[in-house]
Every structure is written in C-alpha cells, then in structure tokens.
Amino acid sequence: MNSNDYSDQDADPFRAESSRRDSPPQQKAPLRPNYMTVGSGSTSESAARLMAMIDQDSGYGGSVADGEGLARGWHPGITEDRPTPSHTPVLPGESSAESENERRVFASHVHQLFYNQNKNALNRAIGQTVEVLKNLQKKNSEWPAHYPSVQRPTDHSSVPHADPRPGLHHTQSTLDNHYGLDQSPTSRPTPPRRAGTTVGAAHSQAESSSAAAQTAIPEPRLITPQLSQEFSVLKIDLKMGNLSQAELVHSLEKHSIAALLDGQIKQSVRHLYSLRERIEDISSKVLVTGDLNAGKSTFCNALLRRKVLPEDQQPCTSIFCEVLDARENDNIEEVHVIPKRVARYNRDDERTFEVHPLSDLEKIVTDSDRYSQCKIYIKDIRGLDESLLNNGVVDIALIDAPGLNADSVLTTAVFARQEEIDVVVFVVSAANHFTQSAKEFIFNAAREKAYIFMVVNGFDNIRDKNRCQEMILKQVAGLSPATFKESSELVHFVSSNAIPVAPAELNRPGGVDGSSSGSGPGFEDPGKGKEKEREKIHAFEELEASLRRFVLEKRSRSKLAPAKTYLMHLLGDLHSLATVNRDVAQAELDRVTKDLSEIEPAYEKSRKVRAEAGEKVDSTVEDTASEVYKFTRDTLNSSIARVAEEDLGVPYPGLFSVYDYAEDIKSAMIEIIAEKVEFCEEHARGRIGDGFSAIKSLGLLHLGDSFAHVSIQPQQIYRRKKDALARYIDLEVETWDFFDVSSLWERQEKVAGTSMALTVAGVVGGRLVGGVGWLDGTLGAVRIVGANNLRRLIIPGLIAGVVLGVSYALSSIPQSLPRRLNAKLSTQLAALDYTHSNALRISSEVRRALKFPGDYLRVGLQRNIEKLQGKKQETSQLKEESEVARKYFSNLIRESERIRTAVTSVDLEGPSPGIAAAYSS
Ligand SMILES: Nc1nc2c(ncn2[C@@H]2O[C@H](COP(=O)(O)OP(=O)(O)OP(=O)(O)O)[C@@H](O)[C@H]2O)c(=O)[nH]1
C-alpha cells in the first residue's frame, strides 16, 4: 500500500483495505464486537479448529500420506471472515496498530495453511500419478498400448467403409474427414487399430499381441489430429529427416511405439519426482537488485532489522551477498566467501569457501576481484510472525546484488532468471527514477518473472510525493504491466534508512538478542511522537507484509504452479490414452468374442470328422484286405486241388520218356499255380484301387485341394520278385505214380461186364498193385470155371492177365500220373502253408498300400484340429487380454479423472480464503 494512501485512510484500516481491493462485502470488518481468547478458557469452535490445523500444519508440510485432509477440503468456517480473535481488545469498528498487526499475523497463518494445503494436495496427486504411471508402464509391457496419432490423409482407399468395429475418430472435426464425399453417412468410421494391424482380412483374424507384432504395418493407427495435438506430456517426440512426427509414429512397429511410450512414462515419473522435490523444498530466494546506490543494502538491513550489509554513499556492493539464517550453519554467525575459482559452493566442503567474521563484510563486498559471492549466516532477531527469513512456511534467503550498471546488468538478469530465485525485488531511487540499466534489467527479468516487487527507496528525500508516485507508476506501467496492475501490493514507496536497526554484531553493548522488532533496546529510535517517522515505519511494515505474501504467492506460482500444470497435462494425456485404449480393447474384445463363437463349433466339428473319417478309413482298409485274403485263399485252394484237371499242355511222349513226362507235368502244374497267384495279385490291385478311391473321396471332402495330389500306383505293388515256387517243391516221381490204382479201380467198376481174362488180369493186376479184392476175384473164377478147369487155365490166364493188366496200366499213365502228382503237390503245398502265406502276403500288401492315403488323411484331419485348437487358444487368450486391458483402461480413465479433479481443485490463482484474502495481492 502506498504511504500516501495510508494517510488518507479513515480510522478503520480493514474497511479501507477491503474497499481498496474491491473485496466481497463479507470481508469487510464486521460491526459485531470483537472477542478475545484469553487464559485457558474455552475457545470458539473455529478458533480451536484453526489452532489445531496450525499445530498440525506448522508450515513445514503436513503429512502427505494423510488423505483425509484433502478429502475434507477447506473447512468453510475458516474461509469466513469472522471477528479476529485478538489479544488486543478493540471496540467494534475501531482498530489499532496492534490489532491490525494481529490481523496480519492471522492472515499470514491462513496464507500458510492455504499454501500448505495446496502443496499437500499436489504432493498427493504426484504420488498417485506416479503410481498410475508405473502401473501403465507394466501394462504397456504386457499389452502394448495404442498410441493415438493422425490418420494418414492419403490413405482413402484402404479405409473400410462399413466396418462393424467402433471408431474413435468419429468425434473428430471435418478436418480429419478422409473418407471422401462419397462416403455413406451411415458408414462407421475407421476403427482404432493397433500398430501392426491391417485392414480388411486381418480384421477377421484373431490378433494376439504376438501375432500382431509379426503383421505388417501398412496402416497408421488412430485417431484425431486434435487428440494427437492434445498430447503434451506423453507426446512421442520424434525428429528425423523430413517426416512429420505423425508419419514417423505410423512407420513404427507397435512394440517400438510401446517402447517409446515406456520412455516417455519413465521421463514423466522422473519429472514428477523432481517436481515433488521442488514443492517440498521450503527455501525461497529473494533477489534484491537495483541501481547503484539506490539503497539496496540499506533496504536489506531494514528487512533484517540489523545492520548486516555495509551501506555507503558510494557504490560498495560488488559481489552477490546472500543472507541466510544461521540455523543453516549450525547457528554460527559468519561469512562464507566464495572465491571466483570455485564453481559451486558447498557448505560441507571447506575447500569451496573462506570463513570470515561478520565484521570483515565491508572489506569483502568491495573485493570483486577475488570473490564472486558470499553467504552471510546471521541469527534472525525477529519473531516468527514478523521475520522474513523464517516466516513459518519458507526459509527465505535475501540476496543483495551489486548495483546495476552497463556491465552488471546482464549478469544480474541471468542471476534473476535462475529457477531458484522466486522473487525479484527491485530497489529504485525515488530521486533518480529508473536508469537505462534499470529499464534494461526489468525488461529482461519481466520476461521470466511477470511480477517484480518494486521498492521506491529514499522517499523521504522527495518533496512532491504525489508527483513522484505518479511518475514512477507510469514508468512501471511501461516496464512491467503485470506489476503495475498489482501496484498497490507490488510497488512501495519507503525510506529504508528510517527503519531502526540493530548493530551487525549482537553481542556488542546495546545489541539486541533478537526477539522483538520495532523500538527495542539498541535501535536507533527515530524519536517518540515524531509522526512522520512513524508513518515511514508503518509504510515499511506494509511493504514487509506485502513482500511476505508475495513470496508465498510467488512460491505458489513458481513452485506449485508448474507441478499443477504438469499434472493437469499429464493426467489429460493419461485420460486420452486410456480412452483410446479402452475403446480399442473393447473393439478387440467384441471381435475375438465373435471369432471365438465361430471357432468353437468348427473345432468340435473337426474333432467329429476326424473320428468318423478315421473309422471309415479303417473299415475300408480292413474290408479290402480281408476280402483279398479270402479271395486269394479260395482261388489258390481250388486251383491247387484241381490243377491236374487243367490243360497242362504236356503231350505224352510214350513209355520210354515217362520220367521226362512226369517232370514236365510237374513244372506245368507249378506254373499254373504260380499264374493263379499272379491272378490273385491282379485282383488285389483292383481292390486297392477301389479302396484308395474311397479314401481319396473322404480326403477331398475334408481336406480339400491339399488331398488332390495324393495318389498311389497299384502297378508298383507286388513287383517284388517272388521266390520261384519250384525251388520249394520237391516232387519225387516214383514208379507207383505211373499206376494210379485207385483210378484204375474206379475204371474196373465202370467196365464190369468185360471178359474173364480181363477180370482175372484185373484181379491179378489188382493183386499186383495192391492186392485189393484178390480173394473175391479168385472165388469168382473158381465158381465160374470149376476147380479142375481152373487149375488148367490158371497159368495161361495168369500170363494173359498180367500182360493185359500191365499194358492197361501203362496206357493209362497220361491220366493217372497228373492225378498222382497233383495229390503229391497238394500235400507239399499244404505242408508249406502255401495258400495262407500267399493270401496273407497279398492282403498285407493291400493294407500297406492303403495305409499311406489313410495316414495322410488322418494326419491332415489331426492338423486341422490342432490348427483350430491353436486358434481357439490364441483367441481365448486374446479375449482374456482384451478383457483385462479394457478393465484396466476403464479404471485408468476413472483414476486419472479422479486425480485430475483433485488437482483442478488446487486453486493457485484465486483469492486466498477468508481473512487472508484481505491481504492478498
Ligand atoms: N535519505 C535516504 N538515504 C538513504 C535511504 N536508503 C539508503 N540511503 C543512503 O543511500 C546510500 C547508499 O545506500 P546503500 O544501501 O549502500 O546503497 P546500495 O544500493 O546498496 O549501493 P551499492 O550496493 O553500492 O550499489 C547510503 O548512504 C544510505 O544511507 C533512504 O531511504 N533515504
């Protein structure tokens, strides 16, 4: 507040404050009686609550872990402008310097609480966001997240016009209308796709994470340019060649994008940690700068109420002097001087500074050749309520800068731009106004720090104070419009040298031991009753109060605002990312559910087909083989039994070649039997062909074209050289083989009425060959010719009979020999198990020949099942993944929204609550 304003105020400074700042009516001083809280009596509810809050939250940070405080929010009772619980009784509507001071103190506490509440809310939000990001990082590694990016505008043709999957860029502006004018208004927009997915056919297939990774990436993924632009923190920033960022993102494979996103997340987590560190840092630096000899050192001393820094008529401060609380130096008052060669000061490393007593300061500050800056540790002689160094919330360090001139202006501007400098206090001489260097500095600094705290010093030297104020404010308006707008709080006209200060060394006689301000012992008392002096002190106290608030508010802006802004952006990004991914997961879920509903019955069907076709193949093979076996066995059996009846094609050469004849017959019979075997093989070939056809039609039915090339070559079957049957047959021709008695006997019966001789001969022959029925013959002959005649006839008869019998037997060799040999052959072949072994061989070959197509069919069907089974498993897994992802991203939407709401409610710009508002800039 300006000192001139103050003199015009009425008796109630609160009312004057309120009206000056257009504060809401309820903030005006009430006309109700004030009350006091004294002794140990009961306190009002809100006062008790406030005290409890102050106790809990002393300005050094409340518990971040305590979520309740935030949840409850600011207690409305606190924000009401109630009568200040004052220790200084005043009548309603009246005010005194003491009560005003108490109100300020109270407002300061409210400020602190408000600041801390915001700080804690942000701190908590940072912790929660880090948690969310870490979870997202984990999720991203399992289910590579989709990253929104711009649809490539040239890709008209590849955009499906009627895709059933939901689309996201439906919501985008017409700028992103890539469908062309002919697009049906009812057609659905392009669905969100993951990198690596393709349009068209690929959609119908289940896309597992791994499968998708292998797919080509002809298409860009998602989404709206707006959304893409909205991405601020998690934006994947790629700068390569002439390609735009969006194109680059498109060209990347899904896992590369996931990796990039992972990098962004890590970076964000790191940034959040550094923001947390920053908002937790309670130190704040105030840089005091201004023209040469403007009174900067005097001003700093006045703030400290101690003559610490050397003041002189001539320019004296040539290095940066930082004044810190001695508590940061084990409560020892001393000066650490940093030589120019030292790049970075470290209080714990004595190599980085020289230690000097405070009394050396005058010498030190003028020695700019050796030193770059100094740290002055002093004990704060003021109480918590008034102190600037320790005001209960922040530890403020004052930095007295060398006076500005053409050489130092840039150095100081650079210094002022440092992030750790929260507030710049510019001291300007009321008499000299802004010099060229000053203007240059403010212009430079204003770019970084919108607000500059202006101290117009040496106001006591000015006679026409109003004119001076007007002129200075006009210049401020040009130099820093923001500061001008808040000039009542930020521009102060004071006389720093009017403030009573204690000597630099407190243990000097007359020094103070630092607890009170104002007119304590040792101060250069301006003189009681001197109204003007009091006014100067009052103006300076107002400046101090403003400066304290300004530091707090600036801290809000410089420390809390970046955290808030960053969190808002980050949570916004997370929200967008989560929305996109939830929709993608939902779309995938719908698709795979549909796929699965088709795959499952197909899988069951293929299992059934395999079982049925397998049975059919088995029965075909078995039936064919047993039929062939039976056929072969029957054919060979009958052939062997009747081979003698076949046309053997061997002429009878006569009695003298009868043995050769027997051999030829034997060979002919063996050949006929061998031919029969071949005949059976030929038959088997035919049956193999039939069996194969049956299997092939099954194959074509169930395996389609893949079975078309399957064939067999029946001619190749039974080509193995067969062992010559003759080798195994050992038919020894015996004499008796030429005389087939049984057949002769049969024939004798047929010619029963022929002559006696023949009968006798027959009988004799019969006797000769086997003696069968000779008794009958003899008895018959005796009866017919009588015994005597018989005796006479017997010799010639016998001779005739033998001759006849022998000649008959010899003449019937062509008939009897094959039979005998056939019988012998049959016996031998039976002994060799010839029929069975051949039938078995031929039928086994049938099995072997049909086994190949049968197995091929079986394997093909099995492969079909496995393929479907694999697809089923993959789709089920994808379904599960999509379900989990959808749930996760839905939660992420909610969670990011919840944290964002909490961060939004952190009001760094609005007025401070309650009484503090009356003292806000
Ligand atoms: N009349 C009057 N004199 C003042 C005021 N403030 C400072 N002075 C005097 O102005 C002279 C310069 O003061 P310093 O505090 O040394 O000025 P400075 O800006 O620190 O000087 P450098 O750091 O050397 O640029 C001293 O003699 C002070 O006593 C004031 O408000 N009124």
UniProtKB/TrEMBL annotation:
Biased segments, Basic and acidic residues type: 12-23, 525-534
GO biological process: mitochondrial fusion; mitochondrion localization
Gene Ontology cellular component terms for the protein in this record: mitochondrial outer membrane
Chain intervals with Low complexity compositional bias: 201-216
InterPro entries: Dynamin_N, Mitofusin_fam, P-loop_NTPase
Signal peptide bounds: none
Segments for region (Disordered): 1-46, 72-100, 143-221, 505-534
Keywords: Coiled coil, GTP-binding, Hydrolase, Membrane, Mitochondrion, Mitochondrion outer membrane, Nucleotide-binding, Transmembrane, Transmembrane helix
Entry's localization field: Mitochondrion outer membrane
Biased composition (Gly residues): 511-521
GO MF entries: GTP binding; GTPase activity
Coiled coil (residue ranges): 858-885
Topology in membrane: Multi-pass membrane protein
Sequence ranges assigned to domain Dynamin N-terminal in this UniProt record: 286-457
Biased composition (Polar residues): 37-46
Tree of life domain: Eukaryota
Reactions catalysed, as given in the entry: GTP + H2O = GDP + phosphate + H(+)
Protein name: Dynamin N-terminal domain-containing protein
Species whose genome carries this gene: Patellaria atrata CBS 101060
